[in-house]
Amino acid sequence: MYYSTDKNDHGLPHNPFKAIVSPRPIGWISTIDAQGRANLAPYSFFNAFSDTPPMVGFSADSRKAGLDEPKDSPTIIRETGEFCVNIVSYALRDAMNISSGIYPRGQDEFELAGLTKGRSKVVAAPYVKESPAVLECKLFKMVDLPGSYTLVIGHVVGVHIDDAYIKDGLLDVTGYQPLARLGYRDYAAVTEVFPLDRPGQR
């Protein structure tokens, strides 16, 4: 089949775009505003863009569905210039889902989801202490995309890794099974990995 994204004339019950671009890692973004109020929300339009220097980014719609408020994460990051990315393990799937709800600004999703705030080393934003890995980030740039989304790009200035998942000097992702977003309401967890050598590598 073929369809035009201008017309969305795919004839399917749901737009398949997000199912095609999958799996997508989840950026579980934590921030703290100038009043000291913590916020935590997951974004599936998230990824790493470079490793020297390490840069990550996520995009968010400008408004909260059903509330006449802008999205908290990009708003607070624009105000403070800082955030953390918390990696979502399979064990944290329910807590992540709770934090994805539409709540008014000032609601502490850490408390709603029963999570512990960790104290960051460089940025002011707290992180999810239960997360297997965390990236402390300083805002690099915000880009308004066509439509209503904003791309937030951060420079990773600090990394936390739970030592339990370092095996033989490598990060064993199968130990915590990072969660990924698929299309529709579907998710996946990484439970096995396999290596492939590039041509000419030994």
Description:
This protein starts with 16 loop residues before the first helix and ends in a 13-residue tail after the last strand. It has helices at 17-20, 72-80, 93-99, 109-112, 173-176, and strands at 24-25, 27-32, 38-43, 46-51, 54-61, 82-86, 117-118, 127-128, 133-144, 149-161, 166-167, 170-171, 179-181, 187-189. The mean pLDDT is 96. A hairpin with a 4-residue loop joins strand 9 and strand 10 (149-161). It has 202 residues and is mainly beta. The longest helix is centred in the middle third of the chain and has 9 residues, at 72-80. The protein has one domain (23-189): Electron Transport, Fmn-binding Protein, Chain A (Pnp Oxidase, Chain A, Roll), CATH 2.30.110. It is built from 5 helices and 14 strands.
CA-based gyration radius: 18 Å
Classified by CATH, the class is: Mainly Beta
- In the sheet with the most strands, the strands line up as 3-2-6-9-10-5-4
**Tally of DSSP β-strands:** 14
CATH fold type: Pnp Oxidase, Chain A
Largest sheet: 7 strands, antiparallel
Separate helix tally: 5
Kindly name the structural category: mainly beta
Shape by Cα distribution? globular
Give the quaternary arrangement of the chains.
Answer: single chain
